[in-house]
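Supplementary Text 2. Reproducibility record for the structural model of the 324-residue chain.

All settings were left at their defaults, and a single model was retained for analysis rather than an ensemble. We include the record here because the model underlies the residue-level annotations in Supplementary Table 4.
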Amino acid sequence: MTIARPALDPELRRLLAGMPLMSRLTPDLLAQLRRLPSPPVDSLLAHRQAERREITVPAEDGTPIRLSVVRPAHTPRATAAPCVYWIHGGGMVMGDRFSQLDIPLEWLDEFGAVVVSVDYRLAPEATGTTLVDDCYQGLLWTVEHAAELGIDPGRIIVAGASAGGGLAAGLTLLARDLGTPAIAAQVLICPMLDHRNTTVSSRQYTGVPGVWTGEMNAFGWRAVLGRLAGDEVPAHVSPALADDLSGLPATYIDTGSAEVFRDEDTDYASRIWAAGGQAELHVWAGGFHGFDALFPQARLSVTARRTRTEWLARVIGGDGAAGR
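Retained model, structure tokens:
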């Protein structure tokens, strides 16, 4: 039986035709992908008036966690700038703190934001809550050093793409549940929210090559969950499991109509509204997973990225107070 799927945006379809696609991840293939070089951060900063600082902070178990801090150059330290705490994608099994860094650097350009990107440990070497806990420790360090970094602690935005979007959602839930630190807004870009992998969109994009498929998603979740199953899976790891989505900061969620995470992402926004929260949701017609990161110059990508930036301007702009 042929499975019906939303059509790809015509421009994105042409661009995607030149990419090698796959349907599955294996341990051997993951090892090959991990050997690929990190994104060239120096080229991202070459045309920007920005300075980068590398920090190491201890995880709960003492393991060193790396943070990259990028701030506008020649800005007085006393300036209270917004902060984007960035969590990279990669299915929770690959990537590093420089992955998709061009996205938050646009907010450095636009708002003078300080960008802090965290190198959380990856699955399967790290499992369970380790990944989100690493992100939490990095966020605590950022807040504790806000004055030193020139950050306004009232304007901290947690943001991430794909697995990073899921970890951003889990981190925001964790901060809410622990009562600290205060997060002004969360930006969840095609977030990986639900380990169950049972939605209509999950099924639509299983059994077909793509950028991220149902089979690849199952591989990533098996890696991070380890032996956890059923009721043992914490909502901070798989945020779709959270019973209560009240008390969250202003939330931006976007996804593509032609991707595996579409339905879990739209459901998450709906549940925030049901809990009385504020969320803005965009489902980009014809967008596949990560389209705006892979092809940022495509017309749909330009629109998606500009719309995110305009939302952030409304939330953290003006008098500097974040909306809730």
